[in-house]
Amino acid sequence: MKTTVELPDELARRAREHARAHGLTLRELIERGLREQLRPDRDRASYRWEPVTAGEPGDPFPDRPPHELAYDGQLGSAPQP
Questions:
Q1: 66: buried, middle or exposed (CB in 10 Å: 19+, 13-18, 0-12)?
Q2: In a domain, 61, yes or no
Q3: Which residues in the chain show pLDDT less than 50?
Q4: Would you say residue 29 lies in a domain?
Q5: Of 6, 15, 32, 49, which sits 20 to 30 A from 61 (CA to CA)?
Q6: The pLDDT of residue 76
């Protein structure tokens, strides 16, 4: 299928330069970009972050964030330089 797309001059220039630098035609670059954006798994994160919580019920330091406790040496020893 043939179609016409209007692009800002600067974007078109950068796309042509990128395609040339990577041994692609502008058509190949656009096709790759569209395929990447339209991938079914595109919106899924590649890594799932596990939730991290600070403090548990009965925490002896509920009013102080963990990074402050670390500097006081209360979460273990700090690495020595």
A1: middle
A2: no
A3: 75
A4: yes
A5: 49
A6: 52
Residue 30 lies in domain: 1-41
The 10s digit of each residue's pLDDT in 26-42 is: 999 999 999 998 988 77
Contact 61, 69 (CB under 8 A): yes
Per-residue pLDDT at 40: 84
According to DSSP, the residues that pair with 74 across neighbouring strands are 76
69 contacts: CB under 8 Å, gap ≥ 6: 61, 75
> How far is 4 from 36, CA to CA, in rounded Å?
20
Instruction: Give the count of domains, the chain.
Output: 1
Q: Identify whether 54 is part of a domain.
A: no
Q: Is residue 80 one of the residues assigned to a domain?
A: no
Return the residue matching tokens 């096709």.
Answer: 31
pTM above 0.70, yes or no: no
- Residue showing tokens 């330089």: 81
C-alpha span between 54 and 66 (Å, rounded):
7
